[in-house]
Structure formats: C-alpha cells, structure tokens
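Catalogue entry: protein
Contents: sequence, fold tokens
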Amino acid sequence: LEHLQNAFEQNTVAKIAHSVGMLALFTVALSSFTIALQTGREAIMNMVGFMQSLIPVVMTLMAAMGNLSTVALMHPVIYVSLNILATLTQNIVFPLIFCAAVLGIVSKLSTRFQVSRLANLFKDGSMVLIGLFLTVFVGVLSIQGVAGAVTDGVGLRTAKFLTGAFVPVVGGMLTDAVDAIAGCSLFIKNTIGVFGVLAIIILCALPVIKILSAAVMYRLAAALLQPLGAQQLGDCLDLLGNNLFLVFGAVAAVGLMLFFSLAIMVGLSNAVVMLR
C-alpha cells in the first residue's frame, strides 16, 4: 500500500487509493473480530445452558440430603442470576467492546474526527461491568447459601434428636437410615459436581483458546507491520488485539462465575453434613 501510494503523482489520488486499500483490510480484520465475538457469545450460551440442565440434578440430590432451606433459597437465585449474567454479558459487555473497537479504528483512520476517548470509555465500562458482575454474582450466592446451610444443619440436628429420643424402638433405626441416604446422596452429588466442573472447563477452554489465539495473531501482525512502515494498519490491528483480550476476559470471567456457583453448591451441602 505504501508503494502504491508513492506511485501516484497527485496527492489526492494517492490518499484515495491508500484509504480504499486500508478500508478493505480493516473490513477483513473487523469481520474476523466479529467472528471472535460470536464465538464468545456461543461459549457463554453453552456454559449457561449446561448449568441450567445440571442445577436441577444437583438440587434434587441436595434435597435428598435434607438441604431443603438451601434448595429453596438457592434454586431461584441461581436460575435468575445465570439468566441475568448471560443477558448482560451478551447484550451490554460485548456490544461495548465492539463499539470500542469500531470507534478506535475510526480514530486511527481519521485525523479530523477523533473519538478515542469515547472508545476508551466503552472499553473501561466493559471492564468495570465484568468485575461488578463477578463480585455481585459470587457474593449473592455465598450469602444465600450460608443462610440456608445453617438453617438446614440446625433443623436436621433437632429432627434427629427428637426422632431418636421420642420415637420408641425404631427411632434410632430411622436416624441411621436417614444418615445412610444422606451419605449416598452426598457421594453422588460430589461425583456429579466434579463432572460438572470438568464440563465447564472444557466448554470454556476451547472458545477461550480460539479467542486468545486470534488476539495474539493480531498483536503479532501489528508488531511485524510497524517496521514495514504501515503504522496506521499496525495500530488498528493492535487495537483489535487488545479488545479481543477483553472478550477473552469476559468469557473466562463467566466460566469462573459458573465454576464458583457449582463449587458453592457442592460445598454448602458438605457444610450441612458437618453441621449435622
């Protein structure tokens, strides 16, 4: 492109030819950036859909262990939180990242029309929202779960004491049978929890690797173009690479939130067993 621009004698024609070539290259780069965004959206939908299918199984086993208060508190909270998390990430965070990338490219292309500060605002806003979602999501689940676990633990200890003390002959047998059922349910639930964690890691890892690879390729291309004199194109590719790192962070954060939610559910039912 630089040689093509120098081949024209008139400055205006050279600028037009250079701009047309740059726009063609930016269209290709932005198209691949959009594909990476779509990969992130699909990854989030797959992870959330898997969690929504796994939660009823885990909650049923928790109820079989006697964690009725925990199930009553956690089940609606987790479902609502997952839907809100997926909706906000896909409809707010990703559009902010895309707008930041487009505005950044516009600022690189034009010296007269500058919107770089607005692009930085969108970029910073997406980072703040990701951190806020992570904090609120994990905090709400932890508070709700601890309250339910304490209630279940105290209630089950009381029920076991009353059954063993006031039900003649078979009271002790009933409490032993309940303990056996709870122990089997705990083992099955922990096994399913391990399977769920591994599945979330797999569902998150493959798209994250793709997005991270695309970001590294953008940054590498920008580094190679700079010595060749294509400063403008290199800056735009570097900008797209930086925004892809944000997409990588958003998908990884959602996977981390789902990992925490599953770990909290498994850990709380184990805490109820200890309180018993």
The chain has one domain: 26-275. The CA atoms of residues 142 and 264 lie 7 Å apart. The chain is about 90% helix and 0% strand. Residues 147-155 have pLDDT under 50 and may be disordered.
